[in-house]
Write a sequence for this structure.
């Protein structure tokens, strides 16, 4: 890992202005964390062509990428913190727990083959206690549920016949924990006359990057790139429903790998709502949406904000007659992928998430809308409002209209 | 008139040469005082490239210099390990460089005995990915990187440990003579303006580029040509080892790694005034255009500052030629009794940083000869305490990056720093990871608070932000900890900022222009510090 060629020289531009530190949800919550400026551009500069430095506090970085957005100089801060994570994992070794958490896909596969048992087990106190002891996963922490009828088992389409063709990357969350999100998306596309295929795919790699498993993450990245390029080269658009996976396809693959293939693929990648917004702009969107008298609060995941495409989910849901949706305007949820699952990070995770919980309470809608399965997990834990993916609501609106 | 002092030998100039002479004198048991007009290393000794020559650069043109350099290179690596990074160096041939030079160079390196190892172009590019893909040949030589800041400080500290005395911020304003003999010097305290006389049996003039001025004080003719060279610093260290062009030495053909930065240079223009540290944008552009042939992306990389220094080159004055004892063509050791009929004064000048120890040895040999002292030089054997501090800081609760710096830096200050770290673990300079504890450890007892002195000893403010954030932090802490008065702190900030600004202005495009703006905003707007001229020393 230490020899991994890392195509990253934006650290040279850092002016030490501290904007990234001021915006980092973790640095604002705990002094244990060295912060984005230090662990990003500063550390990289101090190590280049010299001794490699292992800073344990990098474990606190959630790779939420808020720092990237705040930097006026365009320093790829979170790419650099991901690098620091890889160094830390390589030099200090990875905990068994981090290995489990970074292998969301494998855990998903294993768990969903025993889905009812896993869900029960995850909920059962004694088992949870064991997890805390053995794996440092806090017993208070709620887990996403694993489904026996996971998306892989339900959907296998590999070829589209329609004019617009979509290659769908479902991601671990929609595959194993929330297949209803994936199915809703396919339905929404159907109502718009678009065939959706599901190319061969692996976990996007984000949980691996977050736990310093850079090599493994990059292997998945390359596999996904190859698999999806075969489709984009035949005119398919790549659409995703998970904001973190979308970020990986759009940005992380490009900045970590720096290959032409990564760049080529990135130019064909869309978030699901972003894609629908394009259909709307081209007057291609099916507007037969049944009115809905509901009031929702929208929570924007960090990885949505980081894409810099505004709030496509709200733009689309507002097209439903009578539907009211309001941005709860909260910062990071604190779950941050696998971060909030770790005992030593649990308090920080809860602390970061509290303002979000307050905001949700304040808005007091019927339910909360968010795209990210991990944010949903935190919302489930910290608020008493149900949480839905925008595709579920849209699918509902189309269905009721027909 | 204040106090008078007495000693055996006075050394004028706290550059590397004077420092070396002082230590050699002390090790041979002679009483000595070094007088420096500003801080140690005020002159060329901290205004150079920091290349520990292997000699390979000189083999073709000046074999003697090559032999001396290689021998001293080996000695310094052994005796001053704390200030030298054994990076190794590459000599790289690009298409513009003459083919025939390679053979000539290899033959003369062999004759001198400098080990040269050819490596494949592919390996060279792997080791140094910023090199141009056009390179045609690469050779490894035992070049190194010298930290000239720590070296001058450590050599003087070791002299002090052996009984020598040092007066910094004391300018020699007169050389006292009696009949045809120098009996001492008059010095002026740069802070208080107070003057003292120091008497001695022998005065060594090691004032580098200021040599002519000192000779004038003694009433003798001495022509020092000051050959000013410009150097530029890149914001990060992009090379592992020294990179040289494989051609007859010319301008802008060396890249030396120095801790977290890369230093690039240089040029040569004769100037009159030893205090001329001016910087010229056009000169820099010329350097970059040449440097591009080795490092094609040079213009896209961020420069944080530039600086200049002058090589003091001795020129024989025709009439008194015969009495100058040139140790080699580059080094001049002048016995002014033989040369000018003035006893008790020796001038040592020329040479290089790499050969300072040898110059000192020859000088002190002459001092001993003249004073009738029998003592042999031991500086080629006796080592100076290392800067490593591996046994310390194991449990210090500071960022691993700051710890890493201390491991390689703290040296003899380690116990002091470790204990004050328990009180305050504030990192004052983030770019270079300087803790308050380090700053405190280098503040002189009862001395004046001067950020430049702190910078030379700790690297405070040497990183990409050039003190935008740390200068005022360090000054504020110094006041808080009663190490400086408010007036001193303010003066120190002004001085530090105007000095940093000079070096940044000339490279201020892109990020550095923004950094400069940010720095000015912080100091002028946020801290309300105006442009008004403050008197500094
Ligand atoms: C651009 C450049 C690059 C170089 N690169 C290298 C290199 O890479 N490797 C290498 O080996 N060599 C290098 N050199 C050469 C080397 O730096 C010099 O040879 C060496 O530093 C000279 O040291 P010095 O002590 O003789 O002079 P200085 O360091 O100039 O010391 C003279 C001191 O005398 C003090 N002084 C002057 N007048 C008075 C007074 N009246 N009273 C009290 N004190 C006084 C000054 O303040 C000064 O500190 C380089 C030189 C230049 C200019
Ligand atoms: S990615 Fe998020 S947690 Fe990590 S440094 Fe950046 S802002 Fe902080
Ligand atoms: S916001 Fe960007 S420029 Fe400012 S400190 Fe952070 S990385 Fe550096």
């Amino acid at each position: 890992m230490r020899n991994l060629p890392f195509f990253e020289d934006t650290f040279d531009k850092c002016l030490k202005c501290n904007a990234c530190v001021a915006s980092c949800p973790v640095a604002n919550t705990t002094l244990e964390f060295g912060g984005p400026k230090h662990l990003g551009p500063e550390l990289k500069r101090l190590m280049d062509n010299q001794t490699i430095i292992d800073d344990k506090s990098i474990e606190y970085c959630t790779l939420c990428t808020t720092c990237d957005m705040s930097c006026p100089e365009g320093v790829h801060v979170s790419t650099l913190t991901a690098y620091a994570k890889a160094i830390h994992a390589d030099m200090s070794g990875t905990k068994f727990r981090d290995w489990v958490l970074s292998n969301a896909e494998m855990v998903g596969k294993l768990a969903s083959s025993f889905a009812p048992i896993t869900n029960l087990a995850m909920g059962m106190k004694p088992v949870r206690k064991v997890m805390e002891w053995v794996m440092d996963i806090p017993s208070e922490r709620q887990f996403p549920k694993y489904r026996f009828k996971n998306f892989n088992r339900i959907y296998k389409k590999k070829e589209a016949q329609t004019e617009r063709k979509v290659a769908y990357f479902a991601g671990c969350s929609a595959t194993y924990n929330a297949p209803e999100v994936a199915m809703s998306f396919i339905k929404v596309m159907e109502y718009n006359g678009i065939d959706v295929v599901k190319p061969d795919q692996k976990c996007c790699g984000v949980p691996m990057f977050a736990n310093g498993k850079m090599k493994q993450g990059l292997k998945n990245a390359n596999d996904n790139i190859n698999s999806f390029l075969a489709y984009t080269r035949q005119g398919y658009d790549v659409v995703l429903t998970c904001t973190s996976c979308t970020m990986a396809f759009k940005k992380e693959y490009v900045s970590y790998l720096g290959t032409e293939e990564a760049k080529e693929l990135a130019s064909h990648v869309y978030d699901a709502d972003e894609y629908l917004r394009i259909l709307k702009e081209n007057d291609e969107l099916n507007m037969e949406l049944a009115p809905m008298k509901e009031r929702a609060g929208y929570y924007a995941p960090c990885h949505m904000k980081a894409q810099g495409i505004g709030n496509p989910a709200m733009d689309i849901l507002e097209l439903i007659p009578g539907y009211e949706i309001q941005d709860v305007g909260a910062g990071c949820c604190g779950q941050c992928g696998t971060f909030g699952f770790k005992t030593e990070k649990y308090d920080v995770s809860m602390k970061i998430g509290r303002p979000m919980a307050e905001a949700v309470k304040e808005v007091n809608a019927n339910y909360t809308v968010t795209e990210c399965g991990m944010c949903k997990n935190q919302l489930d834990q910290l608020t008493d409002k149900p949480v839905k993916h925008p595709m579920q609501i849209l699918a509902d609106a189309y269905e009721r209209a027909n | 008139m204040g106090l008078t002092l007495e000693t055996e030998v006075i050394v004028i100039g706290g550059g590397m040469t004077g420092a070396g002479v002082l230590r050699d004198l002390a090790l041979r048991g002679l009483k000595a005082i070094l007088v420096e007009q500003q801080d140690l290393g005020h002159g060329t000794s901290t205004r150079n490239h920091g290349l520990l020559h292997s000699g390979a650069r000189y083999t073709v043109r000046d074999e003697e210099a090559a032999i001396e350099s290689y021998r001293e290179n080996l000695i310094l690596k052994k005796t001053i390990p704390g200030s030298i990074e054994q990076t190794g160096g590459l000599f790289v041939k690009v298409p513009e460089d003459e083919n025939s030079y390679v053979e000539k160079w290899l033959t003369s390196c062999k004759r001198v005995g400098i080990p040269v190892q050819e490596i494949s172009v592919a390996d060279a590019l792997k080791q140094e990915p910023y090199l141009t893909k056009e390179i045609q040949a690469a050779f490894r030589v035992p070049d190194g990187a010298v930290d000239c800041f720590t070296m001058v400080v450590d050599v003087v500290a070791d002299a002090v440990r052996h009984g020598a005395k040092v007066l910094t911020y004391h300018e020699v304003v007169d050389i006292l003579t009696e009949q045809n003999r120098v009996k001492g010097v008059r010095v002026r305290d740069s802070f208080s303006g107070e003057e003292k006389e120091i008497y001695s049996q022998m005065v060594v003039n090691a004032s580098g580029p200021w040599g002519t001025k000192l000779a004038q004080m003694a009433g003798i003719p001495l022509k020092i040509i000051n050959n000013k060279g410009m150097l530029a610093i890149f914001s990060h260290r992009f090379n592992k080892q020294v990179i040289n062009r494989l051609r007859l030495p010319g301008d802008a053909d060396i890249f030396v790694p120095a801790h977290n930065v890369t230093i690039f240079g240089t040029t040569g223009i004769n100037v009159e005034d030893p205090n001329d540290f001016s910087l010229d944008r056009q000169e820099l552009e010329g350097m970059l255009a040449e440097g591009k042939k080795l490092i094609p992306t040079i213009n896209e990389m961020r420069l944080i500052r530039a600086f200049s220094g002058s090589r003091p080159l001795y020129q024989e004055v025709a009439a008194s030629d015969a009495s100058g004892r040139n140790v080699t063509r580059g080094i001049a050791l002048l016995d002014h009794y033989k040369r000018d009929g003035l006893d008790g004064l020796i001038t040592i000048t020329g040479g290089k940083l790499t050969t300072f120890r040898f110059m000192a040895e020859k000088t002190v040999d002459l001092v001993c000869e003249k004073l009738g002292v029998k003592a042999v030089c031991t500086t080629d054997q006796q080592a100076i305490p290392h800067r490593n501090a591996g046994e310390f800081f194991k449990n210090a609760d500071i960022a691993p990056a700051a710890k890493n710096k201390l491991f390689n830096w703290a040296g003899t200050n380690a116990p002091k720093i470790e204990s004050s770290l328990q009180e305050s673990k504030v990192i004052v300079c983030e770019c270079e990871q300087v803790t308050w504890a380090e700053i405190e450890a280098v503040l002189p007892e009862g001395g004046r608070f001067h950020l430049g002195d702190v910078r030379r000893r700790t690297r405070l403010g040497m990183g990409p932000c050039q003190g935008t954030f740390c200068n005022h932090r360090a000054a504020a802490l110094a006041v808080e900890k009663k190490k400086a008065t408010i007036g001193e702190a303010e003066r120190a900030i002004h001085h530090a900022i105007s000095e940093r600004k000079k070096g940044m202005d000339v490279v201020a495009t892109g990020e550095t222009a923004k950094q400069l703006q940010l720095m000015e905003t912080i100091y002028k707007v946020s801290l309300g510090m105006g442009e008004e001229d403050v008197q500094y020393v």
Remarks:
- Residues 287-401 of chain A form a domain with the Rossmann fold fold (CATH 3.40.50).
